[in-house]
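Task: sequence design from structure.
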């Protein structure tokens, strides 16, 4: 804080709280940190910022406000690991604020000459501000919550962090309002499209099944042919009849399955077409409803009259 100028302190105080905190952090040349993960650093920055803002709100000049922040930084560094604020090392006990606090509590830890020198060095920077007001500020904040500050400044936090990755799907770009339709009309169009898609899928499934059965039949015939080709003995009539019956039976079974599938699919397609026909015969009424023939005739006649006048 000693390197901060009055202009820098004024710029910090003129910003909003969060922006002012970040500006003060940059002026102090602290690295950027997360307020939640690095709670200790966040509390230290809050103390420095609050002391500077407090001095500004009390009407302290900008150099004196910088001095208030400097005193806060010194106190935070000097109280680390000290069980009681009144048991600070001699250098800390000689700070002006603690001298005032000790005088207020009737505790004397330093010589009178040393106190006079410290107060004399601090008084010009705080003038015309009453040092007692700044002392009361630290007594009501830092000293009152001293064990809490000790806990934060001296004890390491147990880090328990869970990371979850959430995929965010951006909504599609909406269509222009001119392309919008009535909700009932849109639902009607979706039903027609679904029936058409189901009919096309039925036809595709039937073609795929037909091709699959044909391929199986070809593979079976190829296996029979390879089996006959691998035999060296001469086949008699009975063996040939058995093989022919097997081949014919396989082909008949494949054709039966194809016919059954085609018949079943044809009935399903006819059912889908019937549903589509029922929908097309009962379309929803658009909103707003279209003009009647009489209204359209009047509108056309009015347009012709205006055209003749021109």
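Answer:
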């Amino acid at each position: 804080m000693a390197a901060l100028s009055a202009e820098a302190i004024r710029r910090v105080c003129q910003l909003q709280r969060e922006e002012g905190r970040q500006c003060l952090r940059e002026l102090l040349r602290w690295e950027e940190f997360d307020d939640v993960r690095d709670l200790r650093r966040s509390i230290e920055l809050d103390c420095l910022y609050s002391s500077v803002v407090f001095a500004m709100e009390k009407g302290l000049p900008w150099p004196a406000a910088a001095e208030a922040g400097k005193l806060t930084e010194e106190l935070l560094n000097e109280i680390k690991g000290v069980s009681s604020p009144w048991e600070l090392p001699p250098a800390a006990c000689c700070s002006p604020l603690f001298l005032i606090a000790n005088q207020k509590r009737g505790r004397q830890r330093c010589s009178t000459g040393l106190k006079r020198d410290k107060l004399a060095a601090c008084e010009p920077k705080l003038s015309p501000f009453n040092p007692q007001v700044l002392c009361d500020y630290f007594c009501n904040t830092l000293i009152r919550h001293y064990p809490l500050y000790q806990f934060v400044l001296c004890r390491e936090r147990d880090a328990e962090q869970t990371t979850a990755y959430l995929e965010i799907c951006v909504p599609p770009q909406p269509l222009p309002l001119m392309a919008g339709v009535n909700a009932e009309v849109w639902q009607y169009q979706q039903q027609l499209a679904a029936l058409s898609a189901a009919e096309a899928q039925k036809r595709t499934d039937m073609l795929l099944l037909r091709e699959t059965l044909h391929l199986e039949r070809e593979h079976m015939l190829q296996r029979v042919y390879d089996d006959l080709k691998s035999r060296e003995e001469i086949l008699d009539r009975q063996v040939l009849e058995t093989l022919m019956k097997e081949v014919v039976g396989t082909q008949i079974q494949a054709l039966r399955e194809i016919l059954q599938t085609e018949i079943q699919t044809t009935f399903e397609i006819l059912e889908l077409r019937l549903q589509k026909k029922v929908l097309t015969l009962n379309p929803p009424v658009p909103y707003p409803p279209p003009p009647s023939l009489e209204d359209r005739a009047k509108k056309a006649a009015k347009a012709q009259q205006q055209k003749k006048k021109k």
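The chain has two domains: 6-154, 182-229+247-288.
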